[in-house]
Write a structure and sequence with these properties.
- This protein is of the alpha/beta class and 819 residues long.
- The protein has 30 helices and 29 strands.
- Helix 7 runs parallel beside helix 8 and helix 13 (353-364) packs across helix 15 (396-406).
- The two termini are 38 Å apart.
- It comes from Curtobacterium oceanosedimentum.
- Residues 14-652 form the Glycosyl hydrolase family 13 catalytic domain.
- Residues 785-804 have a biased composition (Low complexity).
Length: 819
């Protein structure tokens, strides 16, 4: 195995059949030129035929042939390593795809042989609950009339299922053959309560595997281990560790398999929650960082007017999420709750089953974190038990009876409760409650809490000091394949917090022009239209349908309300076709365009330079106004991105005079991303600490600035308010006094006790300052960058011993004095 590597940054690619590993290899040069340090790949093991995401792995023994196969991964890894880039791969330990049984050898064997299958140990099946058969929820109202017997197999539509040896004889009908199998076809609606295999959340076509078993781990990770033995892969991203039987044990096994390689976990941390320090990982995939970055750009003064504008929205977030979680526990995850109740029945044999089911559902609805990790996280479980008993005093006696088993790490029910609570939280909060709250939809993002409206600059600084001290190599992100809205869409929506009464008036006008019978959802949809503008009609119709059905208030996936959805789609059409509606949106754009541009650049530079390892999601080096998946997984035009980057790196990039041509287009964001990434990659010594910088003057509240140990980030916040107070005026930011250059504009700023923001941010709402005597290697090929033509010739500062040292070293010494 190669020596352990840690990235300075990553660039996420969504690998599909249409953008396969060969295509990914083709953009390695762009990723390197942009300045990213590692290539970060979505799952690449063999997935369901036609899978667009790769999280439905069907065969762990090789790389997906539609994505290019083993040879293509090797070629990509070799190209990345030759370019000096590391390789990070997303893996899926918790579940496998079972939509196409023929494609999954393990699942086919299980269906064919049942408990006698040589791989029966791989799946988490309650055979007793199914009378020895596994229930497959694929039938419609025709029931077994929808099943055909052809060539010794049973077919539901065009999907084939195996038959056990000796169970098909000449003259048998479908019902007879079906009764002899180790599986039972049931109506799809029975999945909510009668399923007897564990799934990924409520997805019937993703069956959980028991990776805690040594044989399952060895079989499902043999190829992954080979990647590290062959030096192809340098790190892993672990999907959904909360679904595992024993996350800590699994991560330790993985640590040993990879030789301690760089590892991240897709773990959602609620406010105040910490990643277990005992886990042998480098951090999370960055949703905790996203939540803080978003909120430091939100105007707290907007909370009251936006809350009022949201109309009928529930004001108690905790009650709303309790109720949505309870709805999930009683509904699509009812089969998991019932399985828990069956495990608990022996500890309360005299308690009716329905009361145990009710108590378990109330407990999982009462968690404020995704999962407790026993025994170290037992306090979260105790809190949930107490909240459940308080909310349902009629169940207090049942909760008392089952509580000892649930807090016992050795009890099967305690383990399964841990695996279940995260599913209930994700479906109840992310996929339901987030679509039922609309006062400012920026706040409804994975890993965030919409009840927390804004974060102060000082709280932001504290969060960064904590990250630098505890998890310096954790990922930071703003956009992922799972975010509800991309970073630039949220940057535009964030502006609404500054508009207050203007947005309220606009929303009332839009509602009067195109009424929708669900006021909360109407607010959410109009914000999406404003944020993603100018999104296509097709994209907005698709978003409206998904968002409304996820909310589940006025329409649902299983029982769509045709009248409501027609009204909703008419609203989307009006945003294109009704002149009065378009006029309202155009007037909003007059403010949102420029302020969203400022927010977008600010949050991006902050994310790229704050503590942690920044990830750039594919294509977001340019403006990207995406909505929820699959919208955020659309193809990326790398030809155009290369063209933009080449233009910035050309001879015209020699100072601020080229900036007016950039305007509000994508080039300016690419400038910010490339200069920040290159600086982190080429000069990691400038990013060794964190110091929040003070500002003074009439607009001091509108600046966010920090020093990372040589690199200084300055970003504008609340740009609408800044304009209303007349601009920067006398406002100064106060870094350690050294000669500096702004890498984004090439401007030189001599050492002083304060830098005037009116000058520093005259061209852009952000600045990235470096010591003026820095030897420039911030372009991909080591050529002079934007700042090189203005490098200072000021004599070096004197060190504490009287000898000459560079400005950078002088700053480090001064910073150490402030530590």
């Amino acid at each position: 195995m190669s020596a352990r590597r840690v990235p300075t940054s990553t660039y996420r690619l969504q690998v599909t059949a249409d953008f396969d590993l060969a295509a990914a290899r083709g953009v390695v040069d762009h990723i390197r030129t942009l300045g990213a340090d590692w290539v970060y790949l979505s799952p690449v093991l063999q997935a369901e035929p036609g899978s667009q995401h790769g999280y439905d792995v069907v065969d762990h023994s090789h790389v997906d042939t539609e994505r290019g196969g083993d040879a293509a991964l090797r070629a990509l890894a070799e190209a990345a390593h030759a370019a000096g880039l590391g390789v990070l791969v997303d893996i899926v330990p918790n579940h496998v795809g079972v939509a196409t049984p023929e494609a999954n050898p393990w699942w086919w064997s299980l269906l064919e042989s049942g408990q006698g299958s040589p791989v029966a140990w791989a799946f988490d099946v309650d055979w007793q609950a199914g009378d020895g058969r596994i229930r497959i929820p694929v039938l419609d109202d025709r029931l077994l009339d929808a099943v055909e017997l052809r060539d010794g197999r049973l077919y539901v539509g065009e999907t084939a299922y195996p038959t056990a040896e000796g169970t098909v004889q000449d003259g048998d009908d479908v019902e007879t053959v079906h009764a002899r199998q180790h599986y039972e076809f049931v109506h799809w609606k029975r999945a909510d309560h009668d399923l007897n295999y564990r799934r990924f959340f409520a997805v019937n076509t993703l069956a959980a595997i028991r990776v805690e078993e040594p044989e399952v781990f060895a079989s499902s990770h043999a190829t992954i281990g080979g990647w590290f033995r062959d030096g192809l892969v340098d790190g892993l991203r672990i999907d959904h560790p909360d679904g595992l039987y024993d996350p800590a044990g699994y991560l330790q096994d993985l640590h040993e398999l990879t030789g301690g390689a760089y590892t991240l976990v897709e773990k959602i941390l609620e406010p105040g929650e910490q990643l277990p320090s005992s886990w042998p990982v480098d951090g999370t995939t960055g949703y905790d960082a996203l939540a803080v970055v978003d909120r430091v750009f939100v105007d707290p003064a907007g909370e009251q007017p936006l809350t009022a504008a949201s109309g009928a929205e529930p004001t108690d977030w905790q009650q709303l999420t309790h109720d949505t979680r309870r709805g999930i526990a009683d509904g699509i995850l009812g089969s998991e709750v019932r399985r828990l109740a069956r495990l608990l029945a022996p500890v309360a044999p005299d308690v009716p089953e329905d009361r145990i089911v009710d108590a378990v559902a109330e407990i999982v609805a009462s968690f404020e974190v995704y999962r407790t990790y026993l025994p170290e996280g037992v306090h979260h479980l105790i809190d949930a038990l107490e909240r459940a008993a308080e909310a349902r005093p009629d169940l207090d006696d049942v909760i008392d009876r089952i509580a000892p088993a649930l807090v016992d790490p050795a009890h099967a029910a305690a383990v399964r409760l841990q695996q279940t609570s995260g599913m209930v939280m994700a479906k109840g909060v992310e996929d339901t409650a987030f679509y039922r709250t609309s006062r400012l939809t920026t706040l409804s993002e994975v890993g965030a809490d919409p009840s927390l409206f804004a974060v102060s600059v000082e709280d932001f600084h504290q969060a960064q000091r904590d990250r630098q001290g505890s998890w310096p190599h954790t990922m930071t992100t703003l956009t992922t394949h799972d975010t509800k809205r991309s970073e630039d869409t949220r940057a535009r929506i964030t502006v609404l917090a500054e508009l207050g009464s203007e947005w309220t008036a606009a929303l009332e006008r839009l509602q009067s022009l195109v009424p929708l019978d669900d006021a909360v959802f109407a607010d959410l949809l109009w914000q999406a239209i404003v944020g993603a503008r100018p999104a296509s009609r097709e994209r907005l119709h698709a978003y409206a349908e998904k968002a409304s059905r996820e909310a589940g208030d006025s329409t649902t996936w299983t029982e769509p309300d045709e009248a409501f959805e027609a009204q909703m789609h008419a609203l989307v059409d009006a945003s294109f076709d009704d002149p009065e509606v378009v006029a309202v949106l155009d007037e909003l754009d007059r403010v949102v365009d420029e302020a969203g541009w400022s927010n977008g650049l600010g949050q991006k530079l902050v994310q790229l330079t704050m503590p942690g390892v920044p990830d750039v999601y594919q294509g977001t080096e340019g403006w990207d106004r995406s909505l929820v998946d699959p919208d955020n997984r659309r193809p990326v035009d790398y030809t155009e991105l290369r063209h933009v980057l080449a233009g910035l790196d050309g001879p015209e990039d020699d100072g601020p005079e080229h900036l007016p041509a950039i305007g509000l287009d994508g080039a300016v964001k690419t400038l910010v991303v490339s200069r920040a990434l290159r600086l982190r990659r080429d000069h990691p010594e400038l990013f060794t600490r964190y110091l929040g910088l003070e500002s003074s003057g009439s607009a001091a509240d509108h600046v966010l600035a920090f020093d990372r140990g040589g690199a200084v980030t300055v970003a504008t916040r609340l740009p609408v308010g800044l304009e209303r107070v007349g601009g920067w005026g006398d406002t100064l930011v106060h870094p350690v006094p050294l000669d500096r250059v702004d890498l984004l504009t090439g401007r030189h700023f001599p050492a002083s006790r304060g830098i005037a923001l009116a000058e520093l941010l005259a061209d852009l709402p952000v600045a990235l300052l470096v010591p003026a005597d820095l030897t420039d290697t911030t372009t991909a090929d080591g050529a002079a960058a934007a700042a090189s033509s203005t490098s200072s010739t000021t004599p070096a500062a004197a060190g504490s011993d009287g000898t000459a040292v560079s400005d950078q070293q002088a700053e480090i010494e001064i910073l150490e004095g402030h530590a």
